[in-house]
């Protein structure tokens, strides 16, 4: 994810958007909020004019670099502020380069991607842009983005950033094809008052000695009570592939796929994780099921004091400070055996698109966008998730949580950035993941066992892998 008051009030909305986009989710954002564009900016998604071939920064003429972004109404101000600051940095450095924003109206990343590649096919490719992590494998495989590895080796100090954020889907076969635009990852938020009333110790905030599956299950059971609309639940977590993969890792298993890329979601480790969920869902009834969250979502239940613990993303950081009815703690996510815990990261990327007529200048523009002042400008708007620049990220977390969380909890939230693992996106992961989520209720509602669901997940992945291999 700075002494930035504005950031704390609206980080929730921006971070939520990033979390969804990283997962490939569709956004239904109104487009009328972006109807007015700054001078020189495009918003039709297809008419950005490429700069003349013979113009370079060395000639003394200003080179315009087109920056393509999805024009979601709740994000425009944030990315615009970042680009404006990047332009100030370029000017201060005496670079004859100006970044112009090309706003692409769209309802989600699939439409955005199609519009960008249409521009590329028509010879009017944007120079640079931001793209969801789930699309990076496809962009790399199709040769639609520039390999940045050599640029970075000669002219980029990665130590200024959380380096694990570079280990995302823009990093393939030892090469870098994008730079991280922001970060979201999982944490456990818990109701300290419920723990105190039950006489329970808080879950561990130490990522290297996290509370185990068994400890979380026991805490969840002890925090559960009541009936009907007033029932309180102990723990909520979504058993999505990104979550199961990180839990598998803490048990020494695979993160969805083995080292050869073959799916392993029906192995003994994956089944152990699904069985852990199953005990809380159908034995202890300490975890709400889809029917329980139909009227009130899990995070709303947490805010209402009806849920003791929730495993969810950093996109909720800005909402925590608004909870006034009880004290909130932050803990490391569960670890299978109580050792190191791992948390899945969601990292979108800044890229240079193939077809840019000013690749060298585009790299200078990307560097300016990655500058500390540019990340500070973005953070003030609450857009983009947790900044990946170290000197910006920690203060954003501190300001976002305010006095709602003690220093131990803030430290835990910050330390989580050092325990992230990448979601193993490949050319079919996103589509397969959506299909898995669509059939998940069959298990959550008790129609099939957790082992049967694991087998179903495996078959979905195997089918997609076979289809992918045949293409």
Number of strands: 13
Strand content: 5-15%
From the spread of the alpha carbons, the general shape counts as globular
CATH architecture of the largest domain: 3-Layer(aba) Sandwich
Distance from N terminus to C terminus (CA atoms, Å) equals 38 Å
Polypeptide structure, described:
With 471 residues, the chain is of the alpha/beta class. The chain folds into two domains: 5-183 and 348-388, D-Maltodextrin-Binding Protein, domain 2, CATH 3.40.190.10; 185-345, Periplasmic binding protein-like II (D-Maltodextrin-Binding Protein, domain 2, 3-Layer(aba) Sandwich). It has helices spanning 5-22, 76-92, 109-121, 136-141, 149-155, 192-198, 213-223, 241-250, 268-283, 298-303, 317-320, 359-369, 372-381, 390-401, 407-415, 429-438, 441-444, 450-470, and strands spanning 63-70, 97-104, 128-131, 171-172, 175-176, 179-180, 184-191, 233-236, 307-313, 328-331, 343-346, 349-352, 420-422. The strands form three sheets. Strands 7, 8, 9, 10, 11 and 13 form a six-stranded mixed sheet that branches. A five-stranded mixed sheet has the order 2-1-3-12-6. A two-stranded antiparallel sheet has the order 4-5. α2 crosses α12 and α8 packs across α9. Residues 1-52 have low confidence and may be disordered. Keywords: Signal.
């Amino acid at each position: 994810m700075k002494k930035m008051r504005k950031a704390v009030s609206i980080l929730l909305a921006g971070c939520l958007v990033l979390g969804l986009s990283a997962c490939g989710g569709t956004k239904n954002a109104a487009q009328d909020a972006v109807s007015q564009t700054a001078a020189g900016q495009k918003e039709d998604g297809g008419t950005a004019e490429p700069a003349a071939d013979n113009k370079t920064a060395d000639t003394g003429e200003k080179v315009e670099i087109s920056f393509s972004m999805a024009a979601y109404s709740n994000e425009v101000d944030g990315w615009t502020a970042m680009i404006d600051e990047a332009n100030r940095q370029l000017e201060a450095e005496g670079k004859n380069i100006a970044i112009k924003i090309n706003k692409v109206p769209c309802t989600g990343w699939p439409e955005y991607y199609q519009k960008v590649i249409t521009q590329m096919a028509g010879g009017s490719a944007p120079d640079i842009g931001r793209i969801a992590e789930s699309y990076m494998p496809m962009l790399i495989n199709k040769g639609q983005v520039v390999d940045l590895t050599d640029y970075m080796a000669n002219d980029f100090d990665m130590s200024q950033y959380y380096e694990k954020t570079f280990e995302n889907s823009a990093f393939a076969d030892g090469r870098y094809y994008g730079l991280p635009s922001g970060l979201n990852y999982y944490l456990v938020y818990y109701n300290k008052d419920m723990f105190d009333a039950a006489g329970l110790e808080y879950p561990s905030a130490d990522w290297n000695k996290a509370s185990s599956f068994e400890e979380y299950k026991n805490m969840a059971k002890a925090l559960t009570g009541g009936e009907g609309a007033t029932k309180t639940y102990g723990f909520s977590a979504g058993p999505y592939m990104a979550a199961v993969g990180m839990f598998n890792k803490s048990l020494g298993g695979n993160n969805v796929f083995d080292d050869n890329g073959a799916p392993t979601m029906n192995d003994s480790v994956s089944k152990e994780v699904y069985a852990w969920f199953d005990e809380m869902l159908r034995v202890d009834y300490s975890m709400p099921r889809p029917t329980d969250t139909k009227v009130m979502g899990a995070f709303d239940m947490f805010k209402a004091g009806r849920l003791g613990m929730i495993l969810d993303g950093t996109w909720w950081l800005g909402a925590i400070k608004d909870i006034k009815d009880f004290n909130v703690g932050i803990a490391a996510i569960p670890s299978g055996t109580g050792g190191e815990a791992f948390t899945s990261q969601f990292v979108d990327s800044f890229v240079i698109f193939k077809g840019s007529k000013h690749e060298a200048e585009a790299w200078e523009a990307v560097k300016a966008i990655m500058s500390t002042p540019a990340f500070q400008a973005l953070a003030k708007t609450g857009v983009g998730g947790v900044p990946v620049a170290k000197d910006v990220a920690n203060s954003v977390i501190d300001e976002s949580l305010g006095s709602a969380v003690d220093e131990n909890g803030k430290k835990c939230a910050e330390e989580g950035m050092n325990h992230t693992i990448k979601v193993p996106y490949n050319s079919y992961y996103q589509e397969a993941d959506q299909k898995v989520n669509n059939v998940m209720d069959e298990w959550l509602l008790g129609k099939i066992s957790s082992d049967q669901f694991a087998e179903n997940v495996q078959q979905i992945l195997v089918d997609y892998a076979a289809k992918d291999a045949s293409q």
